[in-house]
Amino acid sequence: MSGIRATRRRRQSVLRWVVVTLCMVFFAAPLAGMLDFTTKDAQGNRTGATWAKLVDVQGISRDYPDLAAGFTASVGLAVVTVVVMLVLLVPTMTWVRLRLPGLSRTVEFLCLLPLTVPAIVLVVGLTPVYSWVTYFLGESTIWLGFAYVILVLPYAYRSLDVGLRAIDVKTLSEAARSLGAGWGTVMARVVLPNLRTAVLSAAFLAVALTLGEFTIANLFSRTNLQVAMFLLGKSDAQISVAVGLASLVFAFLVLFALSFVGGRSPSRKEPS
Fold first, then answer.
1. Could you report how far apart the first and last alpha carbons of the chain are, in Å?
2. Which of 36, 78, 172, 232 can bridge 210 by disulfide, Cβ–Cβ 3.0-4.6 Å?
């Protein structure tokens, strides 16, 4: 019996590594193709001129002003989206879990609803709203953050919901309140520290989605990183592909760092 179990475990291990290898090849092959394209000149010789041009910040700002503006706008959009999303979701989900548990299904439905709405339909629905946003706040690309919050709601909700289910929010909040803490202190010093991994997951998912969003910005005639890359691809395809590869690698490194930052817990000294 033990020999059969050992054989089964070996087969499962081999199958697991085969699947992982195939997935790595599937994702790495396009990246390798992008790297190969950006390191060749017109004669097919290897060169690093494209990447040297990309890391020259002053040269990029001078020669490709739309790309610099799009990158700056995407960074600002990522910050606005993350802040608005966390301010909106964390207190709401905590309050619903503590005081209005009957509304949890309704909140979940509202947060997951954007998954069923195509981006083009969302743009049509938001056009009258953004006409007023433009009238009062101006035409800055940064105000697309309000629309991006809607896009990230399903993913952020799931991340935060998993974190809230993993802790006893009611007991922790009642204990803090019994010691005289206000609701602001409860959120800042009790709930958020216990939701660190969930908050980081939601934030990084929001950043990844914001950096890769194209449809809404393009249809609203705003310039973010993806729109700038699209426009740049018409005149300099190598720089455009290099920027796309760099953004993909950056997003991968950020998500990879999450496994270390979010999973690290403060060490506790054992009592002597």
1. 46
2. 78
Q: Taking the model in full, what pTM does it have?
A: 0.81
Token look-up 């629309």 returns 147
pLDDT tier at 263, thresholds 50, 70, 90: low
Q: What values do phi and psi take at 117, rounded to 5?
A: -105, 115
pLDDT tens across 161-216, in order?
999 988 888 888 888 888 888 888 888 888 888 888 889 889 888 988 888 889 89
Taking the CB of residue 232, how many other CB atoms lie within 10 A of it? 20
pLDDT at 230 over 50: yes
